[in-house]
Design goal:
The chain is 37% helix and 27% strand. The strands form three sheets. Strands 4-3-5-2-1-12 form a six-stranded mixed β-sheet. The protein is globular and about 50 Å long. The chain binds (R)-mevalonate. (R)-mevalonate (MEV) binds next to helix 4 and helix 5. The site of (R)-mevalonate has 13 residues, from helix 4 and helix 5.
Length: 294
């Protein structure tokens, strides 16, 4: 039995536009998904709790899957199952063990579909746990690449490398197309406000793609986001000295989280008194990416 964990993320700049090759800067946060993998004779059995949905158990045998009994949109549950299923396929491929069976348990501190990178963290941790369980240790870069392939497939070809690279490497990263790098970041006092909602990343990305194909202003907006990212990168370094503050949505949208930068208690207090804000918490930058757990 092997356990691995990987962090969630917030975007400082660039979500959605990164799917079209613009740069983005996501940062890992100290909210992690933990995945335990142990060998079984065949197939895949997944138990997931704490994904802000009731725990569910799904059995896969020869590709058949059962719909877990949870109070959440079908598309989100299917996506959640899809990430684990495809992550295990990647682990089988990486270890040349196409028939390896697994029991997988997912425990995540990251709310599902809320813009905090829960699917990337689960996928990255699942690939690491399952490959280690088969005696193979992949580099974080290879885990990131394989996790990207999982997101790309589950989200119908609509994913960037940003979430998965950030989760595998930890810290702050910069992603532009296939060019993925870790970057130095100052201390970033994140405050996160969560409205309890969840969006389907694949569907939201597809929605943006349709808008971009249909309307020129949407294509221009995607390019403008790229410019904001380039300017924001410069501001990030200036913020080191200036104690700058700001707030924005994070992730695909459709419900979920805002992220603010504030080292005073004021944003937290304001969010606590904001109707519709279900939870408010601080999250430190997590400099550690995927890692094995005892
Ligand atoms: C979702 O966390 C981020 C998006 O840019 C999608 C992606 O990069 O794959 C919306």
């Amino acid at each position: 039995m092997v356990t691995a964990s990987a962090p969630g993320k917030v975007y400082l700049f660039g979500e959605h536009a990164v799917v079209y090759g613009e740069p983005a800067v996501p940062c890992a946060i100290e909210r992690r998904a933990q995945v335990t993998a142990s060998r079984r004779d065949s197939g895949l059995r997944v138990h997931a709790g704490d994904l802000t949905i009731d725990g569910f158990t799904v059995e896969y045998e020869g590709g058949a899957s059962e719909r877990p009994d949870v109070d959440i949109e079908d598309s989100l549950v299917e996506a959640g199952i899809g990430y684990v299923n495809e992550a295990i396929e990647q682990a089988r491929d990486a270890t040349d063990a196409p028939d390896a069976g697994f029991d997988v348990t997912v425990d995540s501190e990251i709310p599902l579909g809320a813009g905090l990178g829960s699917s990337a963290a689960v996928t990255v941790a699942a690939i690491d746990a399952a490959t280690r369980e088969l005696g193979v240790e992949l580099s974080p870069e290879e885990i990131a690449d394989r996790a990207y392939r999982v997101e790309h497939s589950v989200q119908d070809g609509q994913a960037s490398r940003a979430d998965t690279f950030c989760s595998a490497m930890g810290g702050a990263v910069r992603v532009e197309g296939d060019d993925c790098r870790t970057i130095e970041a100052p201390d970033l006092p994140f405050v996160i406000g969560y409205d309890g909602g969840a969006g389907d990343t694949g569907a939201l990305v597809a929605g943006v793609r349709n808008l971009r194909e249909e309307y020129e202003f949407a294509a221009d907006t995607v390019e403008a986001i790229g410019d904001v990212v380039r300017r924001g990168e410069a501001a990030l370094w200036a913020a080191r000295d200036a104690g700058a503050t700001g707030a924005k949505l994070t992730g695909a949208g459709g419900g979920g989280c805002i992220v603010a930068l504030d080292d005073t208690p004021e944003t937290t207090s304001a969010l606590n008194y904001t109707p519709g804000c279900e939870d408010t918490f601080r999250a430190e930058l997590d400099t550690e990416g995927v890692r094995p757990e005892e």
